[in-house]
Amino acid sequence: MWRKRTVGWLILCMVCLLLLIARLVQIQLLDTESFSKHNVNLLEESVKQRTQELVIDSGRGDFLDRNGELLTHKKLRVLVLFPFLKKIDWDAEKVAEIAGISNQALRNAVENAKKPFAFGEPYPIELTTSQMERINALKIPGVFAVEKKFERASVPAEQLIGLTGENASLLKKRYPEKELPEKTQVGVSGLEESFDEFLLPEGPTKLVYHVDGGGAPLFGINVKYVDPANPFYPVNVRTTIDQTIQQKAEELVDQYQIKKGGLVLLNIEDNSVLAMVSRPKINKKNPYEGSGITNRMLKQEIMGSVFKTVVAAAAIEHNLDDPTRIFDCTKKINGKPERKYNHGKLNFTESFARSCNRTFGELAKELQKKDPSILEEYAEKLSLIGSVGWKGEIYHTDDFRQFPNEDKGRVFLSDEARKDANFVAMSGIGQHEVRATPLAVANMMATIARGGQKEMVRAVSKIQYKNGTTMVEFPEKNLSGESISPYTAMKLQKLLREVVLNPNGTGRALSSLPYSVAGKSGTAETGKYEDGKQLHNKWFAGYFPFEKPKYALVVVNLDVKETGNTVNLIFADMVKMLYELD
Fold this sequence. Notes:
The chain is an alpha+beta fold. It is built from 19 helices and 21 strands. The strands form 7 sheets. A 5-stranded antiparallel beta sheet has the order 12-11-21-20-19, sandwiched between helices.
């Protein structure tokens, strides 16, 4: 009996030993670089256990503004110190003298350190080039003056630029054929997402040294500088954003307490984004809480009377803009008396300037009788339907889009609405099912200012290699499809200018600005209520200077109770600011 038990124990021990050997083989030979379902690189992790390091640059590509300045990060010349300094004799007094800091503060910082750090973090002191050179000339092990990349506390155009994060499953799904560390940052929104493949890091730049179990130097005090040393990577994505204008635009939007909305500013000459502000802001602690991560300038909204520009274009090209015709603006579009906005009897031009709903409801119905799809046709001619962001072929991608999450806008959702006279009248004043993005509205104004030429909107002009040479260019491109005629564009220009010049026009508050403005206001009923009050979308869209158009600007304040002119005030302050900068 005891022999059977002995044999059984021996067999059990042999099985356990074989399993242990198999596990060791798996860990040390087979799955060293992708252990467990989390794909842990055991070689890297074992090295981390016996090293301490300070990452100077993650290796992910950067975003630049149109002048080549960093947008998402800043590079600071900082003093880097290693914890092993507490175990050796070093000239802290000399380092402190050069850096202009307290000797005792320097020693205390090292004494309390458990890992390498930039002195003064989270707000490290910044050194001059001269201080850097003098500190490095001391050649003290564990003391370095380097240029380190830090994330900005506040990123300009944060929804446009987007966010990155660690997401192992998304990383594997997006790049199944690439061997990337599990903790590689990936773009999860905005341009960070659309340009993610270009921005992926080759590897970080860091200072590394080896330690024993107690944190003491393992191979002396030799700190290594690790750098992928690729002259071409990481790349830089050069945006069309003007950082100065962007920051001032954000200050204005916040000054006027826009809780939901923002603005879009385009450079008409090359149809590029100079500034884009979206509110609410992103909650950095929990980006997916609320709607802060959403770029509202790329989302379709009820646009109200701004859509009358489309109706006016169709009316002009179908000879319904007879200057002698008088419209009864004492009535609503349903024929009932208009008590709140009783404008009296107006012609076509005055109706546009004063935003008479009756006129454009009637014109929309007359146009619908000619062709039920006519409003959609002209909305497309003015770039309100369909995406307006830059798209084209880049490398192996046939349909690369700079704004992949851009909404496309619409006029009708059903054929029934398209043929219903009442719905058509409501659509003629930008209500019912009419939707457009602020970006598309800005592009409509730029199209009119250019005389009818439709172009794609760019937020990025090129991708540059690390050495500054161009990797990819995003040239100016026309939008496909028909556009309005130069004649129609000219007449729309005059109508938009009349909105500002007319003593009773909805844009008259903008008549005395240093740049001459042409534009259209819009107030849309949203169908939402708060405290028993109807919420509105408030718009002002236009371009300037009128004589030689340079900028197209849209300001929008969404879901608000107030009926004031906040958007006009922001528009006016933007005009003044740009005039001063020019």
